[in-house]
């Protein structure tokens, strides 16, 4: 089994509803998304999945959040835009685009800061 990892960034604002603290106020982050894909076999040139293509797909999903108030982007207009919920959303958006018999999305990590974030995996 092999793992392929890509890392992307985006900038966006959000506010955590019902947080009862300073993060309930609108604030912004330079977010980091780390995507881990598992592949069973390598192709003829020794590649499990082209990480340039993978990164393009990831960035097309993240572009829906980039330079936005995430609270205004569905489904986060109704769902709290926590790092946990964003990780799950990215996972659910990305998996159908890349999963195959050989390739499976394994994990999405979303970091709000260099030293803290959340991940979703199956």
Description:
It is a single chain. The protein has 122 residues and is an alpha+beta fold. The chain is 23% helix and 35% strand. The chain has a 4-stranded antiparallel beta sheet with strand order 1-2-3-4, with helices on one face. A hairpin with a 2-residue loop joins strand 3 (103-113) and strand 4. The protein is elongated. The model has no long low-confidence stretch (mean pLDDT 96).
Total helix count? 2
Distance between the termini: 16 Å
Structural class call reads: alpha+beta
Q: How many E-type strands?
A: 4
Give the radius of gyration.
Answer: 15 Å
**Coarse morphology:** elongated
The helical percent reads 10-25%
What is the overall pLDDT average?
A: 96
What series of H and E elements makes up the topology? EEHHEE
Which strand-content bin applies to the residues? 35-45%
Q: How many strands, which pairing sense, and closed or not: the largest β-sheet?
A: 4 strands, antiparallel
The strand order across the widest sheet is: 1-2-3-4
Low-confidence stretches: none
Provide tags for this entry.
alpha+beta, 4 strands, 122 residues, four-stranded antiparallel sheet, 23% helix, 2 helices
């Amino acid at each position: 089994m092999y793992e392929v990892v890509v890392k992307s960034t985006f900038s966006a604002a959000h506010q955590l509803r019902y947080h009862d603290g300073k993060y309930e106020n609108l604030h912004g982050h330079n977010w980091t998304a780390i995507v881990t894909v598992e592949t069973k076999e390598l192709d003829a040139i020794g590649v499990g999945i082209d990480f340039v293509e993978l990164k393009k797909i990831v960035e097309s999903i993240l572009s829906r959040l980039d330079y936005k108030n995430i609270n205004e982007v569905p489904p986060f207009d109704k769902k709290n835009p926590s790092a946990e919920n964003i990780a799950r959303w990215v996972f659910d958006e990305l998996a159908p685009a890349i999963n195959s018999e050989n390739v499976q999305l394994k994990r999405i990590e979303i970091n709000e800061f260099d030293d803290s974030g959340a991940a979703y995996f199956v």
